[in-house]
Structure formats: structure tokens, C-alpha cells
């Protein structure tokens, strides 16, 4: 994993340099979120089926649908790896982490252990990176949260618009010019509800 030089300026403890050379064990997803290295186990079947159902509805002819793609958030000690990055096919660079200004939308599917990261930490990071749309798909609460209109800087960055769509309802993604059928999105069994967003 590589980092742009902009991150070095905001990473006073050298975590970025350590992260560059870090090789995670097989099956482990690793991200740098505001100077903190976060490791997660591979996603479960509910997560993977939701991702498959979503990707199938995004036209490949227009959108690059990139999974486990490192994202470069300029000015942030962060290198998140969203569950899905959607980029206009003509805007995809040839290599390296994907600069956040090129991204149209990022998607995170909430896992049993990622609720706070997805709803709070990454919400702020993606807003700071001016990612136009951040979609949180939540199999715990059986809904999706579409966040748009990023504003602010650093940890104070946030999205000014938030729309919640229950699983089973049509999910409008105006930024992509389509609506997503969520009727086959599954939920986790036996997981305690949370209070987000």
C-alpha cells in the first residue's frame, strides 16, 4: 500500500511510514483511519451478497465498480479501503491509490464490528476528502443511508444531506442516474440494533 506525500505532513508520529510497509495476514482487511491502523476479518456471506446485488445494478459501461481499492484522502492521515468505490470509467487512473477527487461514490456495508467506523469515522474522512456521495448499507438496521453534500475540514468535516431508505424500498442514487432495488439485501441474524445514524 502506498501513500501520497501529502499524508506525511499530517502524520506526526510516523504511522504512515509504518503502514506503507505493513503486510497483513491473508483474509484480513487493513485500513489507516486518522493515524490508526484498523484490521478486520474478511466479510461474511450477507455482506458479500449485498455487494454482489449492488454491483450488478451499476452499469459497467459507465462506472468502474472497484472493490477493496485504497483511497488517497489528501491532507488526511488516512488510507481507507471502502467496500466499493464508484468512479466514472473515463476517470480511472492507471495505478496507485485512487485520489478522492476522482471518486463519485463510496460504499460501506456495515459489519457487526464496524458500526462506529462506518457511521462516524469514515463519514468524516470521506467528507474531508470531498467524496460527493457516501452510501452506508446497514444489514443490522435493514436500511441504507445516503450521505451527500460534503463540507468542512479534518475531523469537523461532515455531510450536510442524509437520506435513509429501508431495505425493500427503491434506493435513488441521483448522482449515478439510477435507482437500486434493495429487496434482496439481507440482514444479520441475532445482532443487537444500534442508534446510528
From TrEMBL:
Signal peptide as annotated in the record: none
Domain Putative restriction endonuclease: start-end pairs: 24-180
Superkingdom of the organism of origin: Bacteria
Protein's UniProt name: Putative restriction endonuclease domain-containing protein
Biological source species: Streptomyces purpureus
